[in-house]
Amino acid sequence: GSSAQEVEQSAIAPIRRDTDKAVFIWAALSLYWLQLAQQIPHNSRQEGTDNLHYCPVCGSAPVSSVVHIGTSQGLRYLHCNLCESEWNLVRAQCTNCNEHKNLEMWSLNEELALVRAETCGDCQSYLKIMFQEKDPNVEAVADDLASIFLDIEMEEKGFARSGLNPFVFPAEEV
Fold first, then answer.
1. Which of 108, 114, 112 is nearest to 129 (CA)?
2. Beta-carbon-side half-sphere exposure of residue 122 (alpha carbons within 13 Å)
3. Longest C-alpha distance within the chain, in Å?
4. N or C: which end of the chain has fewer CB within 10 A?
5. Residue 174: pLDDT band by 50, 70, 90 thresholds?
6. Closest to 107 in 3D by CA, of 120, 118, 93
7. Mind listing the pLDDT tens digit for each residue in 37-87?
8. Which residues touch 101 (CB under 8 Å, ≥6 apart)?
9. What is residue 169's predicted lDDT score, i.e. its pLDDT?
């Protein structure tokens, strides 16, 4: 059998060739995976803690992470870019390499920091983190896209994005 990452890579290959149709292909894949994810019983438990930087449902990379309010106050959940699942990951560790020593938070406007970038000095990656306490209606994919200037800033500082937003697939070089 193929691993989830191999399946995703084979699904992404045509998207990378046909970037003008990428969003539509991704939307169809996302709907399919969302329907599959909804069939998982709500009391299901994840068995291991390995590879928590990939979705435990479909194996895809997170688009961003969200710090919740309410009963899960202060807990960080990574948000899958494909099946929309969320899974908990300790806040004091890198979402890419699991290190915890060289983490920093960045934002463009500290006062309104609904969206921040969490960078890791060990693997030189970053993933955006959003805070429901600043806006209970924060949306992982849309607010990630709306904060694209933060991506530009992080790339200028030498960090590589560890997550994937399907609405920012790179255009094909002509």
1. 114
2. 11
3. 50
4. C
5. very low
6. 118
7. 667 666 555 555 566 778 888 888 899 999 988 777 888 999 998 888 888
8. 121, 122
9. 63
Environment class of residue 79 by beta-carbon count within 10 Å: exposed (0-12), middle (13-18) or buried (19+)?
A: buried
Does residue 103 sit in helix, strand or coil? strand
Confidence category of residue 17, pLDDT binned at 50, 70, 90: low
Length of the chain: 174
Give strand pairing partners of 66.
Answer: 77, 130
Amino acid code (one letter) for 122 = D
Q: Is 1 exposed, middle or buried (0-12, 13-18, 19+ CB in 10 A)?
A: exposed
Closest CA to 19 of 142, 164, 168: 168
In degrees and rounded to multiples of 5, residue 52 shows phi and psi of: -70, -5
Write the CA distances from 115 to 15, 108, 130, integer angstroms.
28, 9, 5
Q: Which amino acid is at 33?
A: W
Q: How far apart are CA 78 and CA 101, in angstroms?
A: 20
Contact 11, 169 (CB under 8 A): no
